[in-house]
Design goal:
heterodimer, A: 322 residues, alpha/beta, Rossmann fold, 6-stranded mixed beta sheet, 11 helices, 12 strands, 19% strand, B: 330 residues, mainly alpha, two-stranded antiparallel sheet, 14 helices, Ribose ABC transporter substrate-binding protein (chain A), signal (chain A), Peripla_BP_I (chain A)
Chain lengths: 322, 330
């Protein structure tokens, strides 16, 4: 009995001791925490966070990173608390849900930790830098591109995201641009929750009830892929154009390989976390960005870039998870 | 020939010695695992023994730990409660609505906390009645109420986070007393009460009897239905306490996120602590140790910066090993 317990105890000890210890005595320690990889975009986020941690710590030997992910807001609160124990100099966080994280981010910021909040804004600002994508810009770029490609004439379907503010910002901006093109007729605008399964059935239904469709705007690239499947399965050849949103590598590859329908998408880049980490590196050292006369700006909105065959190489990163 | 006899008698002596100690093997094994984990963690990370880290871990543990104490009663009586996580969200929403409605800050906090306990108890009663009067298996009842409670929390708030500007509320879960975080004091205070209830009262013996064999318990004159019902109410009240601590620490509640997967953490803590999932036996101290083991694993993984992809694997592996450690091989 004692021997077997000893054996099991040893096994447990080995399992624990085998976990790598990265606690190095660097000059600057930057903690990064993001939501877990539960769908395409967040998987991309975590991939880019780890990629940037490797690249930036190689380029700046005096900086080390700890990257954590959390499957809920409360788990992310623990992440921040645990990071703060380790003499943190900077915190880069994409909050799961801002109100839940508000208290603990404020604690970090008040302790003098250089704080970069990504994508989701806190109600009471508690950060040195806020960096996010351009949601209205995503809708505008997609609308202009579709209108130009169709020559201002045609029937389109819109596949929306879940009923949340980010989605309405995108769709409202899209519709505002389309008001300038009286020849464009929006047949239907339906929610897909950015979920591929739901997008597949919604697109099937919409194709069934609309025999003449010229273009589809999918607010998310995973939704675009699902819509494409519905089009193929229904043998529809009337659709000339599908435009996505987000900028997933799968869709970028389609554009690169000159897909007959998938010709464009607009970025809402998950590598904003990588830029946020780079900002933290310069911000925590008190450096300026490039030739700027000021320190790191306090608010940065990344442009929503239209990706087409002309500029696709710039965005091609075959290794990335999204 | 003399040697095997000798070993046997030595083993007998050792076993007899163990029996005289107040701790038996079921509680000793998780304790050994906890001490081991503690030692390994302090070697793996120089920050682990930091006072602030220890106080953080204890606070992180206390939210699910308080729920796990209630869960211990439910499981010993032969049931299970999968709804506790969703219940945290629903009770949390109720607390913040009450606090935001009442203008006097002290009154608001007191009434909010009372309402949390009452709401937790009532939701527990709802589960318990369906199990005892409705004669539906606890797994099925609480699987359904897990979905119902979460859905109600989302409906009342339109899925938006609710926060409060009450100046006092955050001192409850975020505050300290004698240098110890208040949720930790509540956790240990509750553990002592629950231990006394389970081991030194007829009620506690009845809970064990019902879980071990409900039929025999019924023939012995125990009101089985009432005991089962009461364990769900206890679990609900524990959820109410946990919801108070969590929402006041965060000064907000997210209906889609609060208490997410707490049911699994609570059940894991109970099982690691040596309580049989089949019911009939178990200890509160085992559950406390189980909760601490889970909390220290999470903390150590974060402190040592293990790859986020691998954290689940290490956590699952350590849980399996900790449970293996406590079962003597036949």
């Amino acid at each position: 009995m004692t021997l077997s317990r000893l054996f099991k105890t040893a096994a447990l000890a080995t399992a624990l001791a085998g976990t790598p210890s990265l606690a190095l005595a660097d000059d600057y320690h930057i903690g990064v925490t993001v939501p877990s990889a539960d769908h395409g975009w967040t998987a991309g986020l975590l991939w880019w966070a780890q990629h940037a941690a490797d690249e930036l710590s190689e380029k700046h030997p005096d900086v080390s990173f700890t990257v954590l992910s959390a499957n809920s807001g409360t788990a992310q609160v623990s992440n921040v608390e645990d990071l703060m124990i380790r003499n943190l100099d900077a915190l880069v966080i994409l909050p799961h849900n801002p109100a839940t994280l508000q208290a603990v981010i404020s604690e970090a910021y008040d302790e003098g930790i250089y704080t970069v909040v990504v994508d989701r804004e806190l109600e009471t600002p508690a950060q040195d830098v806020f960096i996010a994508g351009d949601n209205p810009g995503l809708g505008e770029q997609a609308a202009r591109y579709i209108a130009d490609e169709l020559g201002g004439e045609g029937n389109i379907l819109v596949l929306e995201g879940p009923p949340i503010p980010i989605n309405s910002q995108r769709v409202d901006a899209f519709n505002r641009v389309m008001e300038n093109y009286p020849g464009i007729n929006i047949l239907a605008s339906q929610t897909t929750d950015w979920n591929p399964q739901q997008a597949l059935s919604v697109t099937e239904d919409l194709l069934g009830s609309n025999p003449e469709v010229d273009a589809i705007w999918a607010g998310d690239d995973d939704v675009l892929v699902a819509a494409l499947q519905a089009i193929d399965e229904n043998n529809r050849d009337d659709i000339q154009l599908i435009v996505g949103g987000g900028g997933s590598q799968r869709v970028i590859e389609m554009i690169r390989e000159e897909h007959p329908m998938v010709k464009g998408t607009v970025t809402y880049p998950p590598n904003m976390i990588a830029s946020a980490m780079a900002l933290a590196v310069h911000g925590v050292k008190g450096e300026h960005l490039g030739d700027m006369y000021h320190g790191v700006p306090s608010r940065i909105i990344l442009a929503a870039d239209l990706i087409t065959a002309d500029n696709v190489e710039e965005f091609y990163e075959p290794e990335a998870a999204y | 020939m003399a040697q095997p006899l000798n070993t046997k008698s030595m083993g007998g002596v050792a076993r007899q010695g163990l029996r005289r100690l107040p701790l038996n093997a079921t509680i000793l094994a998780p304790l050994v695992a906890l001490i081991l984990l503690f030692v390994v963690s302090s070697i793996a990370s120089e920050y682990f023994l930091n006072t602030r880290n220890i106080s953080n871990v204890m606070r992180q543990v206390s939210y699910t730990g308080i729920i796990a104490i209630g869960m211990t009663f439910v499981i010993i009586a032969g049931g299970i409660d999968l709804s506790v996580g969703s219940m945290v969200a629903l009770v949390g929403v109720i607390i913040l609505y009450i606090i935001n409605t009442i203008s006097d800050p002290i009154q608001a906090v007191l009434l909010g906390m009372l309402a949390a306990i009452a709401a937790g108890g009532l939701l527990g009663l709802f589960n318990g009645l369906l199990v005892t009067r409705g004669r539906i298996a606890a797994f099925v009842v609480t699987l359904a109420s897990m979905s119902i409670f979460r859905s109600l929390a989302l409906y009342f708030t339109d899925a938006a986070e609710v926060s409060t500007r009450n100046p006092l509320f955050s001192n409850v879960g975020g505050g300290f007393f004698l240098g110890i975080p208040i949720p930790v004091l509540v956790f240990f205070g509750l553990a002592i009460l629950a231990h006394l209830l389970l081991f030194y009262t007829p009620y506690g013996r009845h809970v064990c009897a019902v879980g071990a064999n409900a039929q025999v318990a019924r023939y012995s004159g125990i009101r089985v239905e009432r005991i089962v019902l009461s364990t769900f109410v206890i679990a609900g009240i524990c959820v109410g306490l946990s919801a108070i601590m969590l929402t006041s620490r965060l000064n907000s509640v997210s209906p889609s996120d609060a208490g997410y997967f707490y049911e699994l953490d609570a059940i894991a803590a109970v099982v690691i602590g040596g309580t049989a999932l089949s019911g009939g036996r178990g200890t509160v101290w085992g559950t406390v140790i189980g909760a601490l083991i889970l909390g220290i694993i999470n903390n150590m993984l974060n402190l040592t910066g293990v790859s986020p992809y691998l954290q689940g694997l290490v956590k699952g592996g350590v849980i399996l090993l900790a449970v293996l450690l406590q079962y003597k091989r036949a």
